[in-house]
Input
Amino acid sequence: MDEDLAAEAANAAEPAGRSCAICGTAMEYWRPRSQKYCSDPCRTAAAKKQRTERPKGDSPKVRRPKATLTPGTPPVPDPARTRKVPGDPHWNPILAAAGRAIGGEPCRICGEPVPRKAHWEHRDRHVCSSRCNDNLKRLTKTRIRRGEIDLLAIPEPADRSAAKSEQRAQLSQERAPQVFRTREADADFPYEFRGLGPISGDIVERNGSVTAYATAASLAADHIVALVRNHSDGDEEPMIALHEQSGSCLAYTDSVVWWGGAADHRDRLHLGQRFRGIDGNSWIWQNEAIRDLDSEGRKYTWEAYVCLAETTTPILWTPAYSARSAKQLRIRRARNSYQARMRERGVLNAAADGVDPYEIYERDQWICQLCHQTIDSAVQWPDLRSATLDHIKPVTLGGAHTVVNLQAAHWVCNVRKGDAWGPGAQQGSATGTPFQVREVD
Output
């Protein structure tokens, strides 16, 4: 009984809140003064009442007039705000660190480790995220504005245009027009090609489809010549590719397609668009790109616009280019594996030479330097007898990833050797005991 009296006294002492504007119910005293309704049904009823009392047609909406644009002098850009770093508009010469982060290096902004799979630009700048990258840019701009960084003192990146011009001149030497045919099925590469692309008078045959090439001036296509020269810098000479079977043609300069058309096709043809030729078959124009290496081992690309019945692989690699790519992949994997093991020991960005494992295997004549038995080159990992690189001075003892410190070994022999030092029993192990190789079953 006393508890009920105490509760009634407490309720009587509590201050009353505002009443609902629809139903008049007293709301809690702690409700904000901006709240006029006690519940959602009351709020919906108030909106309905407002729409009834003020119809939409009684108060039309007044739109603000748009500002009229008057011609005048364009604004002058501020050089201080539009200045770019000489040679690189992306600020890489300023923001780049001494070397690319592999993973685990501290961020230059927040100190967190840089992820191993971060964007290459972030790893170049040793930042862990886009947020830290933006903060680094802002801090760098502030330092430039204060005069702490001199833009003119930053060296420009190496100019490779001269080397590219020399390569283009070498590959584009004067030659007579010729026919590039499809090779036999057992050939190492399916197509014939030469240089950077077709010249006037060349004929390219791909699986029975024949495309001829000539300059627009030689075909008296003055409208195409005028179109190209009016919308490009310099006096570029447009080329025209003529397809024999479909009767279509394509006008281009370098890697830019300017115009394409067919006999029974009113609209303009686009690269990759299917159409029906005069022979009644379906055709498609495609840019054929072939990657190859020149006599000095530098890569280049042959490009030719050809008309085909079926789409093919957009980029083809010659055997020489594929071998170079496979070699670079082997070198990169061996270097990354060594550096990952060094990071486990607390050494970041460990120096490692670009060593091709196959060159070490060939040097050792595919003989395991631990058990002195032959290594089968056809056996692949994870077979126990597959070939691996063994560090003569172990990585755990600071062995370097160099040609003189590497030797060929079976995978199982390499595992059994562990942290021992040297081939066979020539050197002592880390514990001072000689390493003995057991015969592999």
In short: The first helix runs from residue 2 to 13.
